[in-house]
Design goal:
It is a single chain. This protein has 28 helices and 19 strands. By secondary structure, it is an alpha/beta fold. The protein has three domains: 4-287, 2-enoyl-CoA Hydratase, Chain A, domain 1 (Alpha-Beta Complex); 319-496, 3-Layer(aba) Sandwich (Rossmann fold); 504-646 and 679-710, Orthogonal Bundle (N-(1-d-carboxylethyl)-l-norvaline Dehydrogenase, domain 2), CATH 1.10.1040. The longest helix has 21 residues, at 624-644. The radius of gyration is 28 Å and the shape is globular. The chain binds nicotinamide-adenine-dinucleotide (NAD). Nicotinamide-adenine-dinucleotide binds at residues 323-329, 346-348, 352, 403-406, 410, 414, 431-433, 454-455, 457.
Length: 715
């Protein structure tokens, strides 16, 4: 049988080895007929003792077919629902057969893959870190619709299943066994099928071996069903807590909880239907389409090297120089050493450099304390970092990343002084967050080997790196920066040069709009709440305090001096507020003794009372929807401008960069994807409304009307 190899042995055990067309086994349109045909053949077998299900690929089974899922709409909802039910019906036939099915899980089984194993009576997995198990559907705005929610609840109970279903946690086989998702593990991949067959033989006379827990009379769900007082109390509270966390912006977690509650209340088959119906509804939502498009298709595009120049050999970094051991430099040193790269961490004094290296030591100690690293490995990582104040130590670096103060004169001077230490053909990267790379490269003798490598703070946690092409940056330098970023296991987006590139510039509009609202007289707490209400992690004023008003003032002065300030639109309102805050009240931000907020020792913050005296006008009010849209649309418009002017080279970079770099709301699928599901025409109309009420900065960039006229979306 093409796709599913069928092999019966002398003990009357059939092994099905899944080997579907393409790189992975998945729930593509070919899956259902294949499974139906196979199960029918198994049902017709005489003397069958059991069935082993395994895979011929490196993964066991990759899950749902996202290409089909993303096409779900109200028009095909009935077919969608029927198809889900049809898959479940075949799973049910497997479960009703009088012989046991054993899943021999020899590779990752996520989502639909794990659901397929849950249709088996016994699950044995190869205990290897490549074998990830879990339900990542929620991270794509969906729910596990092939029985995953209901069966997850039957196996783990409401509390136990929570992190798997609602948080999309993926685990190793050993953890999955502890959680009750699988039954056994084996140490070697080729032990799996023999072990599965042995289990079938051991259980030949055990009738219960072919009966699922949900079909077992008297089976008790761990923690109890909805009648259990603790569960009855927990359900309404869980719903409220979830809402607080998602702010009502993500429909999937709420629907998962609904289905989970149903599984605790109604019979198994009814719960399975409810699950299918909710899955059908979720798949049609804009949020699911946004999340699938960006987190699956575009993420694969970005990480798969779509922006890396072709035909250039892999550019491995062996020795990296990091200039400046401050907040950023110390983080860059840490992530580089963790990737096994030799690091020279240089600052103006040995003491400053040592302090930067101590940061790595601190992070390593934390890993050891959590049992995530051995002392020996930590010493090896630390040993890769040489802290120094001596230029000579940079000799032979194949990559130097400069992370000194944001000052163009200093950066020029350092480039001239230290570039000669680069190894032949070495590349110079600047971690500037705003200064144009083309201008910085003017100090270089090799502007083609000069590239922007922009990290985000804190470097050890933030997954994104923005690579910036100066006018003269070569493809070779880009490949070097790209490959280094992958070496340190981060996601690279590649953008063209501009003041503030893509991320800083777009993020800046969020701060600017929040500051404008403040100066109009709106209450600062309301402003920050509106930021959170659209799904930003922090309100605009609170985050302005974090990045610091002081930094903004310095940057503004630098751009003005360079004569480029007006490229960034009218910054006069923000400049005015920042000037007043710093010059008149000494409030430069959180790390400068406080800014819009006051900070207490225990980490809590309250609005600085003087702020209300300065700006708050109780009689001023703006509709809530306008406040929210102002904060979101400013960012979307800036991202579109970046696309229009080719600062963004791809839509995928814009979406991934906005979410991973500046915390754009995940429900949007990124600042550009947002426009696709909002509707291009509707977007232009809403921009016009906002422009009339609040100013020309809300006019939709022409690229939206062009796409609309061409009948296209941003892809
Ligand atoms: P920082 O002030 O924490 O650190 C700068 C370090 O550079 C200091 O330790 C200083 O002693 C050192 N330095 C100054 N002159 C030097 C010289 N001649 N040789 C060697 N070292 C020298 O600053 P930071 O926040 O780490 O920022 C550094 C760069 O990274 C800036 O260009 C900034 O714009 C950029 N950046 C910052 C962030 C952020 O969130 N802080 C994010 C992305 C990029």
């Amino acid at each position: 049988m093409s796709g599913f190899n069928y092999e019966k042995d002398a003990d009357n055990i059939v092994t099905i080895t899944m080997d579907m067309d393409g790189p992975v086994n998945s729930m593509s349109p070919a899956f259902l007929p294949l499974l139906e045909e196979t199960v029918a053949k198994l049902e017709a077998e005489e003397g069958l003792k059991g069935v082993v299900l395994t895979s011929a690929k490196s993964t066991f089974f990759a899950g749902g077919d996202l290409k089909t899922l993303v096409q779900a709409s109200a028009d095909n909802a009935e077919d969608f629902f029927n198809n889900v039910q049809a898959i479940k019906a075949v799973f049910r036939r497997m479960e009703k057969m009088p012989v046991p099915y054993v899943a021999a899980i020899n590779g990752a089984a996520l989502g639909g893959g794990l659901e397929l194993t849950l249709a088996c009576n016994h699950r044995i997995a190869w205990d290897d870190k490549s074998v990830q198990l879990g339900f990542p559907e929620v991270t794509l705005g969906l729910l596990p619709g092939g029985g995953g929610v209901v069966k997850g609840i039957y196996l783990m109970g409401l509390m136990g299943a929570n992190e798997y279903l609602i948080e999309g946690k993926r685990v190793t086989p050993a953890k999955a066994q502890q959680a009750g998702l699988i039954h056994e593990t084996v140490a070697e991949r080729d032990e799996l099928v023999p072990r599965a067959k042995a289990w079938i033989i051991e259980n030949a006379d055990n009738e219960a071996a072919s009966i699922q827990p949900w079909d077992t009379r008297g089976y008790k769900i761990p923690g109890g069903n909805a009648n259990h007082p603790a569960v009855a109390q927990m359900l309404p509270a869980a719903s409220a807590m979830l809402f607080q966390k998602t702010r009502g912006l993500l429909p999937a977690p709420a629907k998962i909880l609904d289905v989970a509650a149903s599984a605790l209340r109604v019979d198994f088959d009814t719960a399975m239907r409810i699950e299918s119906r909710n899955f059908t509804a979720l798949a049609q939502t804009a949020v699911a389409k946004n999340m699938i498009t960006t987190f699956f298709f575009q993420m694969n595009q970005v990480n798969g090297g779509a922006s890396r120049p072709k035909n250039i050999e892999p550019q491995l970094t062996k020795k990296v120089g990091v200039l400046g051991a401050g907040m950023m430099g110390q983080g860059i040193a840490y992530v580089s050493a963790m990737a096994g790269i030799e690091v020279v961490l240089k600052d103006i004094s040995q003491e400053a450099a040592d302090k930067g290296k101590a940061y790595t030591e601190k992070l390593l100690q934390k890993r050891i304390a959590k049992g995530r690293m051995t002392e020996e490995k930590a010493q090896a990582v630390l040993g890769l970092i040489k802290a120094t104040a001596n230029n000579e130590d940079l000799t032979g670096c194949d990559l130097i990343i400069e992370a000194v103060f944001e000052n163009i004169k200093l950066k020029h001077q350092i480039t001239q002084e230290l570039e000669p230490y680069l190894a032949e053909g070495g590349v110079w990267g600047s971690n500037t967050s705003t200064l144009p790379i083309t201008e910085l490269a003017e100090a270089s003798k090799n502007a083609e080997n000069f590239v922007g490598i922009h990290f985000f703070s804190p470097v050890d946690k933030m997954p994104l790196v923005e690579i910036i092409m100066g006018e003269k940056t070569s493809d070779l330098a880009l490949a070097k920066a790209y490959d280094y970023t992958k070496q340190i296991r981060k996601t690279p987006i590649v953008v063209n040069d501009s003041l503030g590139f893509f991320t800083s510039r777009t993020f800046g509009t969020y701060l600017d709009e929040g500051t404008r609202m403040l100066s109009e007289g709106l209450h600062p707490v309301q402003i920050d709440n509106m930021g959170k209400a659209i799904g930003m992690p922090v309100g605009p004023l609170a985050v302005f305090d974090e990045v610091s008003l002081e930094l903004n003032r310095k940057a503004d002065a630098t751009w003005t001096e360079m004569g480029v300030r007006d490229k960034w639109g009218d910054g006069s309102v923000t400049r005015g507020v920042v000037g007043t805050m710093i010059n008149d009240h000494g409030r430069g931000g959180r790390h400068h003794g406080g800014g819009f907020y006051e900070y207490s020792e225990d980490g809590t913050k309250t609005i600085w009372p003087g702020l209300l005296d300065l700006y708050y006008k109780p009689d001023v009010s703006v509709p809530v929807d306008d406040m929210k849209d102002r904060l979101l649309f400013r960012q979307v418009i800036e991202a579109l401008k970046c696309l229009e002017t080719s600062v963004l080279r791809t839509v995928a970079d814009g979406n991934i960069g906005s979410i991973m770099g500046i915390g754009a709301p995940v429900w949007t699928g990124g600042l550009i994807q947002f426009v696709n599901t909002y509707g291009l025409e509707r977007f232009i109309a809403r921009c016009d409304e906002l422009a009339v009420s609040y100013g020309e900065r809300f006019k939709a960039p022409a690229i939206v009307a062009e796409k609309l006229a061409a009948g296209e979306q941003f892809a």
